[in-house]
Amino acid sequence: MFAEIKYRPLFLSHDSLFLNGLVVLLASIVLAIVSQIALPWQPVPLTFQSAMVVLLGLTLGSKRAAAAVALYLLEGVCGLPVFAEGYAGLSVFAMPGAGYLLGFLPAAFITGFLMENGMAKNVFRIFMTALVGTIIIFFCGVLHLQALFGWKNAFAFGVKPFLITEPLKLLIASFIAIKGWKHT
Questions:
Q1: Which residues pair with 8 in a beta bridge?
Q2: Beta bridge partners of 182
Q3: Bridge partners of residue 47, in order along the sequence
Q4: N or C: which end of the chain has fewer CB within 10 A?
Q5: 42's torsion region: left (phi>0), alpha (psi -120 to 50) or beta?
């Protein structure tokens, strides 16, 4: 079924290692900037991080999106204040939002992979792909939250507040991504 890549991203798509590296760097910077747009919700802030991670997968493809997210996580671990609300360092991975951060990498890769393998055909399929990426992020986030607060509170604080806003962000991301792919 997934023997060969069927779609190729058009967004800044190059065969040049240097230009792809530049795209990855710029994408990690955009993710860092978007991460600072946050409503101080407790215990997990309401941000555009997860939607941006999914949008990277929807527009850049699996490898470049995953590389951008990995670079973003590395920047944060190394002390750059790129995480939501300006947080940085390894201590962030002991905080309530850590599971979401850990879900970013597989979500970006899988979202891009699905797009490369046929899900870029129309807005509905792109939206479904975006939902898959978001479910991965929220699954990891809720797993971490339940270890800290229990299942009931993990759902109440880690999913319920996002049930309206997240699909709206994903719908916008889907319409952005629709023109970004060509069939190979």
A1: 182
A2: 8
A3: 38
A4: N
A5: beta
